[in-house]
Amino acid sequence: MKPAAPPDEAALESLIARHPEIVSEEEGELLLVRRQKGVPDTEGGFNRWALDLLFVTRDAVPVLIEVKRAANSEIRRQVVGQLLDYAANGTAHWPPGEIQRAFEANCDAQDEESEAVLETFLDGRHRDDFWQRVDENLAAGRVRLVVAADAIPSELARVVEFLNDQMRADVRAVELGWFESADGRKALVPRIIGVTERTRAAKLAGKPPISPEQWIAEHYGDAPDTASGIRRHLEIAEELGLESGVTRKHEAIWSGRGNRYPFQIYRKNHGIALNLKGDESLRKGLVAAVGALDADNKEWPRFGVQRLNDLGVRNRYREFLETFIKEAGIAT
Q1: Cα 178 to Cα 69: distance, rounded to the nearest angstrom
Q2: Domains assigned to the chain
Q3: Three-class secondary structure assignment of 223-291
Q4: Are residues 143 and 64 in contact, defined by beta-carbon separation less than 8 angstroms?
Q5: What whole-number distance in Å separates Cα of residue 33 and Cα of residue 182?
């Protein structure tokens, strides 16, 4: 076999989609969500960009991949800015549930059963809260950013290694050496750039557990209205028999019971998001209780926590939660 080059970026993208192990550290680590995933530049806005490939790992970490040929002049430095654009706007503007919906739509397009595909991928691992953990990691910026190309120039390798040392995200480049034989057979020789044991250990390490009250004090000590609204939600949740806690990476407060955590309070948007699973009657009930929603998406509508400082809103919210808990099947 002799060194060669892919005919175009689409061919390389297609190959990675079919064989994601060539850009990962172990076989079966990545699950394809979809190709050409739209990325908006405003909350609820239209897609401005299209990410080449979106995967998730078995640990529920979103993986954003941009594919370039070595012959493309953007491979030098522009591709890094491009990928950072996608990551910054995806983490900010993809609503909770967006990655799960994209995965299910892609499975439908391939005439596959999404639940069966996910179960096979996780291979017996706990999957009830898998997509919730994907959302948590996305909101916290715990993602993997990958530039994949048939050759990685040295200046790009230096930038990737620097970013991987400095950022919370896992940043890497994957060089896919492309070889072809005279009879048309192809072979790829992957080389991962940017991964060191030091950065790997630092990024996998969790934070010490903290209570919701410690989380509120840490993030909203100078925002008493927001802090008070969060506490009102926690009080109501406890009265109705729900448990609350802080996620492992300290990015959100959750409320729920057993392995169901349908309430999420993320520090990036100061709102309570509820997993209504597209139930229109519950959405209308929530609107009747708290007013117009800050984010009115189908799966995870969200409203500002400050509204719970109003006694009337708080009483209506409590009544709504009683109904929601029963209908969602998480009653004590």
Answers
A1: 11
A2: 2-204 (3.40.1350.10), 212-327 (3.90.1150)
A3: CHHHHHHHHHHHHHHHHCCCEEEECCCCCEEEEEECCEEEEEEECCCCEEEECCCCCHHHHHHHHHHHC
A4: yes
A5: 35
Per-residue pLDDT of the chain (332 residues; tens, 9 = 90+): 788 888 888 989 999 999 999 888 776 789 999 999 999 988 878 888 899 999 999 889 999 999 998 888 777 668 888 889 999 999 888 998 999 999 999 999 999 999 999 989 987 666 778 898 899 889 888 899 999 998 888 888 888 888 887 777 888 999 988 888 888 888 888 888 876 544 555 555 556 788 999 999 988 888 899 999 999 999 999 999 999 998 877 888 999 886 677 888 987 777 898 888 778 899 999 999 999 998 877 778 899 999 999 999 999 999 999 999 888 777 55
Among candidates 86, 104, 13, which has minimal Cα distance to 52?
13
Q: Is the pTM of this model over 0.85?
A: no
Alpha-carbon span 201 to 160, nearest angstrom: 18
Residue with tokens 């009544």: 319
Give me 225's structure tokens. 């209205």
SS3 content of the chain, % helix, strand, coil (to 5): 45, 25, 30
- 308, with CB counted inside 10 A (0-12, 13-18, 19+), is buried
d(CA 214, CA 26): 38
Distance CA 219, CA 267 (A): 7
CA distances from 289 to 237, 271, 279 (A): 15, 15, 16
218 vs 235: CA distance, rounded Å: 19
Greatest C-alpha distance within the chain: 77
Write out the two tokens for 65: 């991949």
